[in-house]
Prior knowledge:
It is a single chain. The protein is an alpha+beta fold. It has one domain: 4-Layer Sandwich (Phosphatase 2c, domain 1), CATH 3.60.40. Strands 1, 6, 7, 8, 9, 14 and 15 form a 7-stranded antiparallel sheet that branches. Strands 4-5-19-16-10-11 form a 6-stranded antiparallel sheet. The chain has a two-stranded antiparallel sheet with strand order 2-3. Helix 13 packs across helix 15. The longest helix is centred in the middle third of the chain and has 25 residues. The two termini are 37 Å apart. InterPro entries: PP2C, PP2C_BS, PPM-type-like_dom_sf, PPM-type_phosphatase-like_dom. This is EOG090X05SW.
Amino acid sequence: MVYTVLRSKLFEISKFTLVFMQQSVLMTTCLRATSSQEGLPLLKSQFNGVSCPKYKRCRSFTRYGRPSEKAPKISPQQATTILQANEKMYEVIKPGSVLKSIDWNQLASNNPLEDSIAIAKLCDNRSYLLGVFDGHGGPACARVLAKRLLSYIAASLPSQHVSSLLLEQMTPTTEFRPEIESLYAYEFNQYHASVSYLRDTLSNDESQCSINSTERALVTAFDAMDQQLSEEALAFLLGPEMGDILQRVPRWDWKPWWGDAFPSRDKVLQLSTLSTAMSGSVATVAHISSNNLVLANTGDCQAVLGYLSEDGSWGARKLGKEHTSENASEVERLYGEHPPNERDTVLRMDRLLGQLMPLRAFGDFRFKWPRHVLEKWVIPILGESALPSHYKTPPYLSARPEIIKHTLSPRDKFVVIASDGLWDLLSPTQVVRLVGEHMSGRVALGPLTLPPGDVTLEEINNMLQQRREGLSKRPLDTNAATHLIRHALASTETGLDPDRLSELLSLPDDVVRLFRDDITIIVAYFDTDYLLKSLPQTNQE
């Protein structure tokens, strides 16, 4: 078994494919937009009307105007149905894992939802990858990452046994007639491009290309993913002309793979592909193995660790900082990558070149491609506004992640990874407190069960006291991610307001985006007993 990917449920797969939304999908890009909601083309008029694909959100619900046509208010029961529609839970049954269970959920603001989730269990059944991807300018880029990025990371981490298994499974065993290969040349080349990175990584001799740390594996996979998305978009758009472009851009480490497979492309498909390439996504991926948590963050998603202090109170530890203009070190990094005479233009109105809020992101290639590429091939299709003002020394944007490492202790109870739709409404401290209270309150939702074996009266008394405390905090939702979404929308100074929740969930699509963003949350619980056993013998409590 290679590894397991979670989307709407847990799947076990024997082939090296990526499962996404209950569909087994070959390792192909989704940059080519379709006629469905998964990738609607961004037309020239639409593009000109977008000032920034990721603008600041309202952080309060206190001031807003009513829509022109008042939507019917839903009932509290209907509100709960909406909140729980996308919730999922997974319990780790096999012993010897640092994770005990995982809750996740999503609530859309955009239509279609621009966030994506990917969760993978590695082949050792003890290591996990958890990813949240917050798209902007459309859902396409985030969906590509959810389908492919964890596979790139997994290929950078395997043991020798897994390497051999993957190489064997990636060897083509099916032959197609020439006319079929010609008809689907684009799709075949996309697949081979994705697999080429995996094969190169797995085939390299350890002495020549050793990824001997999780940190380096995450950085390598993030960089390779973004580079390949760029290559695929340009190759599909420009075909054989691509080789000439690459020769004129020596600062980029291009590895052309498309050969002569691209005849002149249909203009509608070119528009769809290019418009989709202009979308982007931020990402946060956590690798959890044994008592080690390694986080890779690109953009403004956040991860927060919840732990119990010695006095029994809950504490919140932010894992890294958002890559926005509010991060002073990130601003200095950006200034240092461009000439001093661009200091007044590279960051304007707290946005990259006055337009993009996150200072690191996947996609968004109009902030990365050389100026002559944008002028010759992008502007004629999307218009002058596709070229940002003061565009002098690209690339201005990078997908390279910041790496944060943390050694888990028995006091660490869970980690919350979420898109900024949650953090716009709740602080890390509030989130940790809510999940902590939910942990004790969730116990009261089910019947009292005694552990197997002999139980003392003192142990039973302690269980009853914990249950009494849990009854006072009994939540409405068994899923912690749903619990957070409910409180993010309906919390007031006096508690939850069902009317407020119903009103906010009744807003029509063209209004709701004014008050909140898409919300995507993963809550992963740690196994305290496992972490106790992982301590040195002298430190065990």
